Q: What sequence folds into this?
């Protein structure tokens, strides 16, 4: 196991593009190393490692290439795993990882349903391992600064409305074959892939309080030719709180947008890029038209500081030996709220109460 | 009657603050004069005129002060009237004005209900007078430029989502006594006063097409101590179209915000001030973070160019002798859609179809 001074030894269950970003983030974290990469095709894994284990990108020891996920979970020299597998099969691997004593970073949405996520989180709790989802903006410097401003009582005042929109426009290749439109592997479509961030940001603004009720509307679904079942392509929803509300929209066929507004009794904040902040000029947020800079940049313009901070933060928790219950808890709340939005959409948009920790 | 070269002779049914803006707009319009101001208190009317009929603000002939609205409508030297009376009593005066052969500019919401607005518009049609509501942004230079950009097929592409938010935060005086919280005089509260602009902008984006259905949610209502009935204090809604949708929020207890986003398959536009554009630097809109300037300024920094254009445009229509059916039609659509949003809110947020011109 990782001691409090040894770097955390990571195993990656991915050779996808997102895996490159994670590799880089772990390299820059300063308290972790990629010790192994696993995939179903060992050749691809070897190529992935060969590609990244060069120059500044290299770890002191070349990560091992493993041809199966089971091998990774059996390895005694792996402390934590990164699990970006498709949502449809992710819970089973998260549970296996937890039962093997591995700490886990899970991509979002964490599971196809709250019921399945509950089993994952219970397994993590039983094994005493840290669970965290891969929402990077939770770890950015901007969010902490934003909290200060929201709490100052003067800039925004009493919260009235949070509005978020996260979208990108898939190209023909995306619509033809991308997994995110597969009703078996990614049944939550844009709601799980993009709405997760909107709901997470809204819950963050709520200081993790459960909404009284939520609503949802499936604005458009998408069914691939020959596929059984459809997935959400465009979705809107609302989280209803006492005294304020949060509205969101997400879409797979709208150009990249990631804007957020936090409007209150005294003023409003505008964020043009709440999910993946630009560096430099656009790193901040705007109050009354004035930028409040919170540069989110570790000095490497090619790497998102948020990702590095996530892996650094996670490794600190692993090395502390005390899993932080905040992270599984907020993943749980995000999943439950998301599912309630979907349930509302399935019943014509009527409000669905969210009944607190019991879900 | 106004000939095609004589200035249009305006009668104002208001000595309220908005009346000052209208006076100034008519003065700058270049094709109209305020010929009379009417109110229930002739002393107040005289003070209002005395206050404005000075220096550069003065008309060549001092407008007459009239102590009743009836007198104004009977006057043979009045071509058009501005009617900002409370919504609860506005339709009856709009009908009287139309029947007296006066062209009318009505404040918004035009009526408490679509049924009552129908009677107003029928009266205007019978008398052959122009009807227009007081939505100034319809006449700004920005909207025309925005249409060009939306239609260029490259900047935004196919429309996917229009998002608008219009709010201000009433002070204690507002909550204590302002007419906009009076359930008899202004039963539509923030929906009528602010949501009208959001719906109008969304319908404009739709090129006036009827939505397939709309939804609404009364997020918060407000009942004054001792009052019978409440009015919408915070409201959200959606207009559902084939292929896209428009969401909006409005509120009387959220700091002044008037933002809009127009997001499409290829890009998005952000407008920070879609209702009352700032002059200078902020007069434009933003595409991919880049400002597209459309200065809305007639050279007088104290006067909103939109208002001047509205009164100039209206007077042109009056002088042409051919009422333009567009203006009553878009007021009608706005009112019908607004009412459908309210009906949806009253039935738990389920979609309410909008059935086209017959309402």
A:
């Amino acid at each position: 196991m990782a001691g409090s001074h040894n770097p955390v030894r990571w195993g990656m269950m991915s050779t996808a593009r997102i895996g490159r970003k994670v590799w880089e983030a772990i390299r820059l974290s300063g308290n972790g190393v990629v010790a192994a990469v696993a995939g179903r095709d060992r050749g691809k894994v070897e190529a992935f490692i060969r590609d990244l284990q060069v120059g500044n990108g290299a770890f002191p020891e070349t990560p091992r290439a493993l041809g199966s996920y089971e091998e990774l979970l059996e390895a005694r020299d792996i402390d934590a795993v990164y699990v970006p597998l498709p949502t449809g099969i992710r819970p089973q691997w998260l549970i296996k990882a937890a039962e093997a004593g591995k700490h886990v970073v899970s991509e979002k949405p964490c599971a196809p349903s709250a019921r399945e996520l509950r089993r994952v989180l219970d397994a993590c709790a039983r094994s005493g391992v840290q669970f965290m989802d891969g929402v990077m903006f939770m770890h950015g410097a901007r969010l902490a600064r934003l909290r200060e401003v929201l709490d100052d009582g003067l800039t925004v005042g009493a919260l009235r409305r949070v509005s978020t929109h996260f979208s990108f426009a898939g190209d023909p290749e995306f619509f033809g074959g991308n997994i995110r439109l597969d009703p078996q592997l990614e049944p939550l479509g844009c709601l799980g892939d993009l709405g997760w961030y909107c709901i997470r940001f809204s819950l963050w603004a709520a200081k993790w309080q459960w909404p009284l009720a939520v609503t949802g509307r499936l604005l458009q679904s998408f069914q691939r030719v020959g596929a059984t079942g459809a997935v959400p392509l465009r979705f809107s929803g609302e989280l209803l709180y006492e005294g304020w509300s949060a509205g969101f929209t997400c879409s797979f066929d709208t150009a990249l947008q990631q804007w957020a507004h936090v409007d209150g009794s005294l003023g409003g904040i505008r964020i043009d890029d709440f999910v993946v902040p630009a560096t430099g000029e656009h790193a901040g947020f705007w109050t009354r038209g004035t930028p409040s800079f919170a540069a989110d940049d570790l000095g490497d313009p090619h790497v998102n500081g948020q990702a590095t901070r996530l892996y650094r933060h996670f490794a600190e928790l692993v090395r502390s030996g005390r899993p932080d219950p905040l992270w599984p808890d907020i993943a749980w709340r995000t999943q439950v709220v998301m599912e309630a939005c979907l349930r509302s959409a399935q019943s014509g948009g009527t409000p669905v109460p969210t009944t607190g920790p019991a879900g």
About this structure: The CA atoms of residues 130 and 325 of chain A lie 8 Å apart. The longest strand of chain A covers residues 253-264.
